[in-house]
């Protein structure tokens, strides 16, 4: 086993929450409201219910071979060569996701915080920080997440509390103005960010103690993260309005700018920035870890850490080449990301589960 560390089900819960929030808290409101308008909050409820069904699938797959990672399960069920091809597709998805996260980090900082700073420098600094985290292993990543998690909760509470006076209920009206089609379209495009990506945790489940509690916490973490994103979406609509939310690249960041208490506590968008930086860092680090671990298992290596520096170079290069600017990145997310994600992260695991259950049932009946 390449990873010798073990984590508790509570640490697993916090990882799932942070992973669910990461990235989506800044970009999801705009993408969702573009399709569903003022009914975006309803569309996200539908997406969350579907997302919990995904977790049921992932838990079933984790129960099939509890001691194996997703990469190892592919070879176990599909056989050596087909399993390696399937695992390689999954690793390419994590590789692309890592590059997309790094692209988001660079675009946000160069357009909102450190305007004029070369985007490559921001990406390199963030990636190096993530590399150090991955090098220390799963246990250290989880314990660091536990330390930062209370700060994320406090900052979210401050944001929602102080933005409440700016709420305008009329921004939610009219409800169901254009029927179910926009709702379903919005829900569909929300599935790729973040729910279907949670299949990644099948790379971590073998290292979690208390397997029964872990499965419950998988649901809890997804639901809690979904509630946070739901609140961000509905506050974006209530405060900014559907049109402004659609127009803005980072509507939740704009929410922080709207806070004003007594003309002395205002322009605290840094709260949203900190929440996003914390969650985005851990999401990138977790993906980076899974990519290195999975590739080492695929290649039959004894240690995944020797892959970290080459992978850092490959992630950085691919980030710069794949999305040269923010417009290109947003077009890709709007048109290609959802079907790509559902193919790799839903259809393949579903196929794995069906074939795995048939093979297990057949082997059991043969022994009898």
Number of helices: 14
CATH topology: Amino acid/polyamine transporter I
| Parts with pLDDT < 50 across at least 5 consecutive residues | none
Report the count of strand segments. Answer: 2
Radius of gyration: 21 Å
Distance between the termini: 31 Å
Q: In which range does the helix fraction lie?
A: over 70%
**Helix/strand class:** mainly alpha
The top level CATH class name: Mainly Alpha
CATH architecture: Up-down Bundle
Please, could you describe this protein's structure?
The chain is 76% helix and 1% strand. The protein is mostly helical. It has one domain (9-367): Up-down Bundle (Amino acid/polyamine transporter I), CATH 1.20.1740. The mean pLDDT is 87.
Topology of this structure?
Layout: H1 9-21, H2 24-36, H3 40-64, H4 70-78, H5 80-113, H6 119-136, H7 138-163, H8 180-190, H9 211-240, H10 242-247, H11 251-258, E1 260-261, E2 265-266, H12 270-299, H13 308-322, H14 326-367
Antiparallel strand pairs: 1-2
Helix pairs in contact: 1-7, 1-9, 1-12, 2-3, 2-8, 2-9, 3-8, 3-9, 3-14, 4-5, 4-14, 5-6, 5-12, 5-13, 5-14, 6-12, 6-13, 7-12, 9-11, 11-12
